[in-house]
Fold these 2 entries.
Entry 1:
Amino acid sequence: MPDPMKIRANLVGDSTEVKVLMSHEMDTGLAKDSSGKIIPAWFIQTVTVLHNDKRVLYAQWGTAVSKNPFMSFRFKGGAKGDKVTITWVDNHNETRTDSAIVG
Amino acid sequence: MPRKLRSIPGAAAALALGALAVTLSLIPAPAAAEQSVEKAIEQYRQDLQGGNPAELWEARGEDIWNTPRGPKHVSFKSCDLGLGPGVVKGAYAELPRYFPDAGRVLDLESRLVWCMVNQQGFTHAEATKITFGKGAHKRSDLEALAAYVVAQSDGVKMNVSLADPHVRDMYAVGEKMFFYRAGTHDFACATCHGSDGKRIRLQDLPNLTKKADAQKAYTTWPAYRVSQGEVRTFQWRLHDCLRQQRFPDLIYGSDASIALTTYLAARANGAAYAGPGMKR
């Protein structure tokens, strides 16, 4: 089971600002280990963000995204107490879903 | 991951170039370039505020702290970091200190190991099996625990007491080590950290003989090292410094490592602790 995400969601004016840290190796498939063997690619492929039940962000990621990725974005609307739910799925089909309350 | 790393200095250089064009007529070019690179890196750090991946280590460390573990099935809630069993808040700002139950001066990492061995029932070899983690398959509990503990001292003023004679002795040994030249390259810590404007490649090195630099350096470790994708503790910092001096391997939690830590921690007294930090 992958480690939990760290999510912050706060109202900024008429938008909600979401900041999320994900725990993931994000191996590019280009690096080699100490014995010279290629470390296979292992990375987050899709990220979905729901505001309550409505999808506000869907992203397709590749190997150019860093290890332990940090993502920050805003969406219009949102109110204190609303729920923001984030899901990522990687190329091993491992997935993790966490949520936070807008503050 | 060398590939993604290139983007960081690359971005800094691009930003620096813009600043250079403006300041060229006022300041000699090399000085201007250096300053704007520093500024660009500072900007990069600010952009990542609230995005320090060390928080992921803190969360894992908190879990480990509260979970009963080892043959004796005991959690760290009975581990005394100096302010009472299980008390974490502000504890790091007063370490290293003398622990009568251990009969030694201990820093954070060696105290964690002491608790794992003496309270949780691990052998010393088990407790120190992975001191420095590497990726998802070789994670260090000690780095996670350290991240959690130090984060509870964020904003607390460094206050390492030299009242105890054991700590004073360690401080004196640490000071001597700092200036002691040895090894194949006749290096001392002070060779690189004893005057202003020194650097390794592009990394500016703090002049640890100056109070302000010493405070800034100590209070930002442990830190998430972007280039390694890991949280590194102060034991790691010293280990790698001594490696670069071509000294023998610094033994994790050894008196030598604790003496140097005591010297550097006490020199940071008075400054607010601000970790875990984030380094290149």
Entry 2:
Amino acid sequence: MANTMNVLLAGFGGQGILFTGKVMVYAALMEDKNLSWLPSYGPEMRGGTCNCSVVISDEAVGSPLVTNPDVLIAMNRPSLEKFVGTVVPGGTILVDSSTVDIKVERTDVTVYYVPATKLADENGLKGLANIILLGKLYKEKGFVKEESLDAGLQKCIPPKKAAMLDFNRKALKLGMEQ
Amino acid sequence: MSEKVLMKGNEALGEAALRAGCRHFFGYPITPQTELSAYLSKKMPKVGGTFLQAESEIAAINMVLGAAGSGVRAMTSSSSPGISLKSEGVSYIAGSDVPALIINVQRGGPGLGSIQPSQSDYWQATKALGHGDFQLFVLAPSTVQEMADFVALAFETAEKYRMPAMILSDGMLGQMMEPVVFPNETEIHEGDKSWAACGHKNARKHNVVNSLYIEAKDLEKTVVERYERYEKVKANEQRSESYLTEDADIVIVAFGASSRVSRSAVNAARAKGIKAGLFRPITLWPYPETELEKIVPTAKKFLVVEMNMGQMIEDVKLVVGGRKPVEFFGRTGGIIPTPGEILEAIEKM
């Protein structure tokens, strides 16, 4: 079977859900993998929540819509509640435990609780909880090379915001240490 | 080889339009095609083109008629309800033998429907986008790369046969990002425009671009002449892709977004030992009858997969002609089927 990773990133608008997905697919692009990125643009977006489907694969991507993720990144409670049941058995869930006050009850998935928002605030990286979680995902799943991830960051941060690159790199490292 | 870039399907359509030499865009905003207009609103002025947000869809399509009637490459884009509004103008464009490009990034219908991806405008695009005897050349991309590649093809074909062309996309293809490669230089092959109603400083007799014929015999003559051209389109322009169909017992027929999901389902079925294959029409009009016909003798059953209640299935049945069973699986209203659902439908056959 082809090596495919289906990722669903979910949270509130403004938490950098779409951005995180973009960094992932740009990193995959660096390695010439097949990939897709699909934002939610429908009614759910208008309710303030936001999610993004990312597929990285060795074979041509079929559906870019991830309905049964191998990896779920949940940055708020409604997202975890909504999608926890959709993760494939044996899948991985990353939870921002500083914004989500519930635990995953399933025993057939691996769950990592990272207080990403708190860590970001304490380390002068406000607003970069998403990248901390991405660092943690990299540590656990290593879906691309580290230099590809860095190149992905460089692609997604416009040159006029170059100062942000260092903060994002710090956040990525911090996530990898969790 | 140029660089692979990541783009939304809607943006790729816009970039491809610029590269195809289109300098006239007339539109009216609607989800989920907005990124296409947004892209061109930024880029078109930089290349000296005209980007115009009209006061309505009806105004926009008539601006396309006027601009294209003067011989330039002109286009419009919208999503399902907006396309319905443009239908009168599309009929006028066809009746005036004017080449132009209309892009439909489909959403759920009927009525205002939903803003989620759908394929429920298949009949509208292929059978009756407006009143009168006419056809559009209809291309159905299934990747962001094809969104980019089909723009120039649509313009060239439209010009070759003097007819409107449509790219029938959907919200999924429009909103998703995927790698896309644009050639370093796009050669522009523009068709003959000696019919165009444009300035010529009295160098020739003036041209008329018009769809009104008071005398019935005159109208019949032009319509019959147009249908002779349509026969050439049918003979020359059918396009399709076959995937694992040679030894397939069950052949899925699907286009655009649903063909991508179907391809995953075919792979999953093969992994379970079921001989499944996929036939993907790329031109929806002309329908790729010739290639589909080749599969009919060897396939045992056909499964048509669409994001609607079953529209293209009628064209499949016309080709299959009762020789093999043709079944249907669809989701509608803006729901994208999952590979698992399609696999289940295959297993039930």
